[in-house]
Structures are given as structure tokens and as C-alpha cells.
Design brief:
Length: 367
């Protein structure tokens, strides 16, 4: 590499390092250390095809991927004899996969999702050419179950495919699975599919005994999470867990790779499963739970300090996201705050300390 390009790279690395110090508005953990895994970056790890079926392409991490999938199948209480999953490129792909399975199960189904749902759901519905209805939500971002009931009543002749948010993008609101199931029962909609978009909150909520349940034991059919959010990864990734019987409807044999293609992308990043596996083994369930409780403590601290300053701040239950009126643009740029409809939020991800919050609040006060 010549000096000009070397200087360009050094400048870019310095900028990334500097900007990572003020990173409060997006749900990404940056406190990880995967230096033990650096030797693997020399190799083209590719988990093409189904993670349960070996391939003639042997530079892969399938065996590790299966352990990662099993970890999430366990915490989401997936049926032991009827569960399957894979490591995705992120929550959006997991949501696409779940909707794809739902469409194959119910080709004429109607998708219901709230107005607070992540934008990828609308995009995925468009890609899959599915019918859909947007449901109102309350002021904190949770689905309006009366509006869901009214919409279901108008289309009770169609199977219902419901996307439940387990942590919305802006307010980290959670849709209540028990209330959704109750509405379905009272509406006499027997053919239904419930998918949980649990990108941010799913991993840690599943480990907290006091949090509302949203897992397979509650009647859901699939769950998608993002791995680069709460757990943390240098590469965006995720995990989707589904019922195996649904997955088997779409598999097709690909002779030249010697396996079944049951995923969205075919070729899949083989490094991400190793990152997730490493973090899971390093922390364990107890360590991940402690990580979550620390995040919640920092979020409670942030809300309390803001209220003491006279700021109208609030957060949802079991959330690490604190919402408050949008500050000046220069402060949003400095701290990389996501904003919408006059509101901004801080997400107290792993790695965000009270010292970071104090520094932000001093800037906020001075502005």
C-alpha cells in the first residue's frame, strides 16, 4: 500500500476510534474484545446452506453455529423436537425469513403490525408481496389491542400473521403476547402465525424472570434477534429461531454444494457464529443476565438524572432506552442520537457507563 492510501486508512481508523467514544443513540454494543479470534480472519469461512447438514465446502463454522442456535432455542423455550434456526446477517433478515415461512404456511394470510414496528417489516412485506394492515399503538409505542381486534374482525376469514415487537426502535415498547393471543381467541381466528421481532431486547428479556414472556411456550411461532446489539459483534449479525416443521416446507437440495438451501442468502458469513459463540461461552447465561441488569441500572440512573434537571424523560418497563425531547442538532450529531417526531433517545447498551451519561448531561445542560 502506498503512503497516500496508508494515510487515508490511518485517518479513517482514528475517526472511527474517536467517534466510538460518543455513541449513545443506537442499539449497538462496542465493549467487546474478540482479539483471540483474529487468526480466523485469514480464512474464508462460509456457512452456505442449512447449518444442520454438512457441505462439501469444508471451510465453515457449522458446528459452532449449531451451538449458538441451540443456546437461543433454549432461552426462547423452543420445542425440543421441532425447532430450527440459523445465524443471519441481522434482525431484518430474521424477520424476512419468518414472514417467508408464514407466507408459505398461509399464502392468503393477512399481516398485522403496529405503526411503531421497524421499517424492515414493511419492506419485507413488500418484497414478499403479502397483504398487510398497520395497527395503531399507544403513546409509549405498544400495540393497541382494540384496534387489532377491530382489524381482525374485518378480515376474520383470512389467516392472521402477526408481528409482535419485543422492543420497538424508538421507545423499546413490548407488545403483549398474552393479549394478542386473547384477541385471536375472542375473534375466533384459528389459523394464525405469531412472529416476535426481538432484535434488541429479546436476548436479555429472556433471561430476566420479572420480564413478560414472549417465547414459544407462550404460543409464538418464530423469534428473531440481532447479535451485534446486546451481545456485540464487529460484524452485523442475528439469529432466527423457527419451528422445524415450517422450515421443511421450503428446503431444496443443491447438488454442487452437497447440502440443502433453507436460508435466505445461501452463502452466509462463517465468522459471525464464532463471535456469538465466543461471547456466549465467555459470559454464560448468568453473565449475560448481569450485563442486562447493569444496563437497566444505567438507564434508571439516566432517567432519574434527567428528571432532576427538569427534563421530561421516561422509559418503558424492563427497558434500557430513555426517551426525552430532542436537543439541539449539534448535540445530536456529537452523541449520535436517533431522533423522530421531536423526541430523541439514549440506549444504555453494554459499555455505556454512568460517566458517559454524566458527560452527555453536562453537554445538555450547557447547550
Amino acid at each position: 500500500m502506498n503512503n497516500e492510501n496508508k494515510n487515508r486508512l490511518d485517518t479513517y481508523i482514528s475517526k472511527v476510534k474517536e467517534r466510538s467514544k460518543n455513541f449513545l443513540g443506537y442499539p449497538v454494543s462496542i465493549d467487546f474484545d474478540y482479539s483471540e479470534l483474529y487468526p480466523l480472519l485469514k480464512y474464508p469461512l462460509n456457512n452456505l446452506g442449512d447449518p444442520l447438514i454438512e457441505s462439501t465446502y469444508d471451510l465453515n463454522s457449522r458446528s459452532i453455529e449449531r451451538e449458538v442456535v441451540q443456546f437461543f432455542a433454549d432461552i426462547f423455550k423452543a420445542p425440543t423436537d421441532n425447532s430450527w434456526g440459523y445465524v443471519t446477517n441481522g434482525g431484518s433478515e430474521g424477520n424476512l425469513y419468518a414472514l417467508y415461512l408464514a407466507r408459505e404456511l398461509y399464502p392468503h394470510g393477512m399481516v398485522y403490525y403496529s405503526e411503531s414496528t421497524h421499517y424492515c417489516i414493511h419492506k419485507n412485506i413488500h418484497l414478499l408481496n403479502m397483504q398487510s394492515i398497520v395497527i395503531r399503538c399507544n403513546e409509549k409505542g405498544e400495540m393497541d389491542y382494540e384496534d387489532l381486534k377491530d382489524a381482525l374482525h374485518l378480515h376474520r376469514h383470512q389467516p392472521a400473521i402477526i408481528v409482535a415487537n419485543i422492543g420497538t426502535t424508538m421507545t423499546e415498547a413490548k407488545d403483549d403476547i398474552s393479549k394478542i393471543k386473547d384477541v385471536l381467541k375472542k375473534s375466533a381466528v384459528r389459523s394464525h402465525y405469531i412472529h416476535c421481532d426481538a432484535a434488541l431486547a429479546g436476548t436479555y428479556l429472556a433471561l430476566l424472570e420479572t420480564a413478560p414472556a414472549f417465547d414459544f411456550s407462550q404460543g409464538v411461532d418464530s423469534v428473531a434477534i440481532s447479535g451485534h446489539k446486546f451481545i456485540g459483534s464487529p460484524i452485523p449479525c442475528g439469529v432466527v429461531i423457527v419451528k422445524k416443521s415450517y422450515k421443511e416446507r421450503i428446503g431444496q437440495s443443491i447438488p454442487y454444494i452437497g447440502t440443502l438451501d433453507t436460508t435466505i442468502t445461501g452463502s452466509r458469513n462463517g465468522h459471525s457464529p464464532v463471535f456469538l459463540w465466543y461471547a456466549i461461552k465467555k459470559f454464560g447465561k448468568d453473565g449475560l443476565k448481569a450485563r442486562a441488569l447493569e444496563c437497566i441500572e444505567v438507564a434508571n440512573y439516566t432517567e432519574k438524572k434527567m428528571k432532576e434537571m427538569g427534563i421530561d424523560a421516561w422509559k418503558n418497563d424492563h427497558a434500557i432506552t430513555v426517551i426525552f425531547p430532542k436537543p439541539k442538532d449539534e448535540l445530536c450529531r456529537k452523541w449520535q442520537l436517533a431522533s423522530e417526531n421531536g423526541l430523541s433517545h439514549i440506549i444504555c447498551m453494554p459499555g455505556v457507563k454512568k460517566e458517559n451519561i454524566d458527560e452527555f448531561l453536562l453537554d445538555l445542560k450547557n447547550s
